[in-house]
Design brief:
With 319 residues, the protein is an alpha/beta fold. The chain contains 13 helices and eight strands.
Length: 319
């Protein structure tokens, strides 16, 4: 996928998470407009470094905070948020560098996102919140728990995320079952050099010959997307990817003292075929682990009714 990556053969070939995921990312970075605008209640808070962070707030009741993944926004949580808002005050932000929280002030790291989350909780006066995070959002929650503890947390839900994304001889449960720190550095370096070609080549390869032609450098759509992608400052997001590569939350999760729900996609392009479910069960004895056999990296999107039902039952039983 990235021709500059070191020659290494992971268990699962590195890839993006499909056409729908790519186009969601394009939409959330403001590169395409699908005309999907739904009236919602938005508030915002100003982080300690001056970044204004928008937050979608739905419903009333005990607080539930939803944290999206990289390249996503609050919109990706809406199928779940609307259902859960019948019984909860649901807060779903656009993390800095995503959705309506652009441009980002400075670089983005997991530590900065965890600070933003702590400041969101303080701004809205939340106490005993349930925190749910998908992918990067799950890593953000792990960083928050590591840095700030569980004093204001009632329960946690993590969606399709390993506590450490890079692998080595002692840890094979990271990305693709084989993504070393050196390999990740190569992927990031390739994206820093030419994001547009990397992304459009990937989309074209997944869409077949017709889409490949439409996204080519000589096609009108391809030229338009290259212009727009050329205006995107990806440096903050690649800084975030580097931060994610440094993170290792195995030890801190083993000491977690609040209820935990873990949801994994059985067909996740990141972790399919890896015994990540067994690691969570063995390491965090009180964890409730649910594998969605047919789901990919986003079980909450592919099976929102089941996800909502299981999350609500988990909250009812434990929070």
């Amino acid at each position: 996928m990235f021709d500059s990556a070191p020659q290494e053969s992971p268990v699962h070939r590195p890839r993006l998470t499909g056409l729908r995921g790519v186009f969601r990312a394009l939409r959330n970075f403001g590169l395409v407009d699908l005309g999907l605008h739904t009236p919602r209640q938005f508030e915002s808070f100003t982080a300690s470094d001056g970044q204004v962070v928008p937050v979608c707030v739905l419903g009333d009741g005990p607080p539930l905070v939803l944290v999206h993944g990289i390249g996503c926004s609050h919109r990706d949580w809406l199928p779940v948020a609307r259902r859960l808002a019948r019984r909860h005050c649901v807060l779903a932000w656009d993390a800095r560098g995503h959705g309506g929280c652009r441009p980002a002030l400075g670089s983005i790291t997991l530590e900065r996102l965890a600070t933003d989350l702590a400041e969101l909780i303080e701004y809205f006066g939340l106490d005993r919140s349930v925190l749910a995070g998908h992918s990067m959002g799950a890593l953000t929650l792990m960083q928050y728990l590591h840095s700030y503890g569980t004093r204001r947390v009632a329960a946690v839900a993590l969606v399709d995320q390993s506590p450490r994304i890079v692998t080595d001889d002692s840890w094979r449960l990271g990305l693709f079952g084989g993504c070393s720190a050196e390999m990740l550095a190569g992927l990031i370096a390739g994206a820093r050099r030419d994001l547009a070609e990397t992304l459009l080549n990937e989309v074209g390869a997944r869409g077949g010959p017709w889409l490949t032609r439409q996204l080519g450098a000589d096609a009108a759509i391809g030229r338009m997307l290259r212009r727009r992608l050329g205006r995107v400052d990806v440096r903050p997001l690649l800084d975030l990817a580097e931060s994610m590569g440094r993170a290792d939350f195995r030890a801190s999760l083993s000491r977690l003292d609040v209820p935990l729900l873990v949801v994994l996609g059985g067909n996740s392009p990141h972790y399919a075929g890896l015994p990540l479910d067994a690691w969570y069960r063995d390491t965090i004895k009180h964890a409730q682990v649910s594998v969605y056999v047919r789901a990919g990296h986003s079980p909450h999107l592919s099976e929102p009714v089941r996800f909502t039902r299981e999350l609500q039952r988990f909250i009812d039983d434990h929070a």
